Predict the 3D structure of the following.
Amino acid sequence: MSEIVTIEPPQDRAVTLEEARQQLRLDGRDEDLLLGAKLDAAQAELEQQTGLKLCEQTIELQLEDWLDEITVPIRPCLVAEIRYTATSGATVTLPETDFVARRRHGFTRIRPASGKSWPELGVDGLVQITLSAGFDENDADLAIARAAILVKTASLFENREGAACLAFDTLVGQLKCRWI
């Protein structure tokens, strides 16, 4: 069983209100509240459909037991730290030399380093993997994601009763294919 906990949420959106206003050719700020809600909905839908985290944030993957190889369901990410509950009941930080974290097929996979094994967990032990998630500002995939968010936001804003957005679906499909 695993759980994902947000430690430090993103500070910004992937697309700013100003960029969305330009996309929609809006001069005023009268509808910024509605536009912000549509931006948030479009970004959340993209992240949910692709498993990607667009903006920098800190996340913790919590596991009840060690797995032979841990596949992190958050993409893209870097492993910042691994802690576990030792048999003594104390929370211990696993040395970086004791594990290997590699990206394979778009996912970060963590396993014990050569010649090492996972330490024994205490009763009701917990493995806590702190991850730094999100795209670098210049990443090509972020540009695709931002374009998808803009077209979805425009569609949501202009068709307030709801309508399909083929351009969004196409761009999300491109991202899904790039991250498998």
Remarks:
- The longest strand covers residues 77-85.
- The first helix runs from residue 17 to 24.
- Strands lie at 2-8, 57-63, 70-72, 77-85, 91-93, 99-104, 107-112, 127-133.
- The chain is about 35% helix and 25% strand.
